[in-house]
Specification:
This protein has strands at residues 9-12, 21-28, 32-35, 40-45, 56-61, 64-65, 69-72, 79-80, 82-87, 90-95. The protein is an all-beta fold. It has a domain at 9-73: SH3 type barrels, CATH 2.30.30.
Length: 102
């Protein structure tokens, strides 16, 4: 079970994009995550409306393995693990590093 959610701000821990921060755009099956502005690749794409148009080079983010990213802790500004706790009778996500709710 992934403890990340769509819209979380994460930091890349490993790989060529190490140290970059971005927002989670999509969680994919098989423990993959797509992060905004990270792991960018170029792809030739043609407009779907106009098949006769020339293909254009488009830069888009590709998936990373979920183990290579960590949730950004708002207090410390570093990557943290995520835990769960109860606050006012509701289950909430908690940053392990600072104890703040996410």
């Amino acid at each position: 079970m992934a403890k990340l959610k769509q819209g979380d701000i994460v930091i890349v821990r490993a790989g060529g994009s190490r140290g970059l921060k971005g927002k989670v755009l999509e969680l994919l099956p098989g423990d993959k995550v797509v992060v905004e502005g990270v792991n960018l690749r170029k792809k030739m794409m043609r407009s779907k409306a106009d098949k006769k148009a020339k293909p254009e080079m488009i830069e888009r983010p590709y998936p990373l393995h979920i183990s290579n990213v960590g949730v950004l802790d708002a207090k410390s500004g570093q990557a943290t693990r995520v835990g769960y706790g109860v606050d006012k009778g509701k289950k909430v996500r908690i940053a392990k590093k600072s104890g703040a709710t996410i």
